[in-house]
Amino acid sequence: MTNSSLPESLELFLFDFCPFAQRVQISLLQGELPYQAITLNPAKMPDDFATISPLGNVPILRVNTTETIFESAVINDYIAQISSISMEPSSELQRAQMRAWSEYSSGCFMALMQLLQAKDKEAFKQANATLISKFTILSKQLLTDGPYFYGQQFTTIDATYAPLFLRMQTIKSLFNDFSLTDLPENIVSWMLSLLECESVKKSVMGDFTAIYSDFIHEKSSGKYLESHLN
Ligand SMILES: N[C@@H](CCC(=O)N[C@@H](CS)C(=O)NCC(=O)O)C(=O)O
Hints:
This protein is α+β, with helices and mostly antiparallel strands. Helix content is 53%, strand content 7%.
């Protein structure tokens, strides 16, 4: 889906640890849309941020310096509309299905949060089983040989899941009890393809392992995973 009314400027307000902002960066990069990334520190937010972000959160895409859009899925739909590179399946039905399975990622993110918040090994194992079962359901939708969800075409559902995969891979590198081997094979191949993608690599702000390890220490202090990091 393309549109000739390309905005004069696009600014993305983000936190470096935020997976939802990363989704938007990936789409902007993949859609080859020039933009300025404005990295905020949640501990030192600008006084006028409420005028930019009505809910106080990120990501926010500011368009032509005055208009703003919140909610990563909606921002990514907008990006797909304005980019001259096709980032959605061509059929209406597949587009609707893609949105449904993109929304499904919320539950996967929740399972990941449960993993970070697990208080002991048993709770951790349970959260991990939930994550695996969610991906087992999703794996039945991946009918192609990849590399992307819809085969050769990178679409916004790839941008939606890539930040989750990056976090799962980072947890694996930081914590011995977490393995990706129980995930369905086609999900692992999809994950590896996405993590090799230039747009995904470029969407990372600095040393992601350090950023995410700080995030874990802050959000999951004293929990099973945090207290057993390598
Ligand atoms: N559903 C939103 C979630 C955005 C979100 O949770 N952002 C977090 C950072 S990762 C945030 O800004 N939290 C601060 C707050 O809500 O005050 C989206 O997809 O854009």
